[in-house]
Amino acid sequence: NQAADAQIKSLDYEFNLTSNLEAAINKAIQTYETNISTLQVNVLESKILSKNLCKKYKVSPDAMMQLGFQVAYYLQHGMVVATYESCSTAAFKHGRTETIRPATLETTEFAKAVSRSQPPSNADLKKLIMECSKYHGMLTKEAAMGQGFDRHLFGLRKLAEAQGGRMPDLFIDPAYAKINHNILSTSTLPSAAISFGGFAPVVRDGFGVGYQIQDDWLGLVLSSYHPHRDGAGFIECAEKAYKIIHDALTNP
To answer: Could you tell me the pLDDT band of residue 14, with boundaries at 50, 70 and 90?
Structure first.
């Protein structure tokens, strides 16, 4: 009630901090200020692609969003990088998340195809899109049913650390480190009640991609750290990517 709120506001609090605690607080403040001073956010909202259009052409809306990220990064940098997509495992008691790995041979083939000076016909591109959608759907189902590999390997690595001694070769292999350095970290919260949402990159040289695809539009909230990444450039490439996907689906 109002009386209780007023009483709380009238109270003065005095905290006695140790020197170690004061130093920790100051360090946390400095780290926070350093991070936010270089964090940049770029936004894309477009009607070029939507759930309704994807359903009309029998492709997964989420697969098309993820394909757009892969094409955008390839257009911007000419390469493929480790990509993370969160997937709920709420079908299981105490289930939280598993990882979907959206960067596949199929998405890479499509990204390379549309980057050529003489790209394939729309009919050929549409076939590649269908393959991307089908494979992404399979990965999503596997992850949701606990058949992904990331959480299992994470658990095994933690067990190995707890036991001490030399780590198994898998966990010290450069390939394992590379696949866990997720340049593209992506997540969506599908809801008509939410327009946009985002989060910071998980690595300094990465992008944080919060995204939505609704009945009539799509949207991205892209975060990155300056000067490591060009967020505006990625958004520009993403617009191109979704137009390419749209044209391939809608034009014979």
So the answer is: confident
- The sheet with strand 184-188 has its strands ordered as 39-46, 218-225, 207-213, 184-188, 83-88, 97-100
Long-range contacts of 21-26 (CB under 8 A, 24+ apart): none
- DSSP per-residue letters across the chain: -HHHHHHHHH--------HHHHHHHHHHHHHHHHHHHHEEEEEEEESSS-HHHHHHTT--HHHHHHHHHHHHHHHHHSS---EEEEEE-TTSTT--EEEE----HHHHHHHHHHHSSSPPPHHHHHHHHHHHHHHHHHHHHHHHTT--SHHHHHHHHHHHHHH-SSPPHHHHSHHHHHHTS-SEEEEE---TT--------SSTT-EEEEEEE-SS-EEEEEEEETTT--HHHHHHHHHHHHHHHHHHHH--
Q: Residue 169 — pLDDT band, cuts 50, 70, 90?
A: very high
- The residue behind tokens 């477009």 is 46
For tokens 């450039």, what's the residue? 233
Does pTM surpass 0.70? yes
Distance (Å, whole) CA 8 – CA 248: 62
Q: Which amino acid is at 76?
A: Q
Q: Give CA–CA dist 24/16, Å, rounded.
A: 14
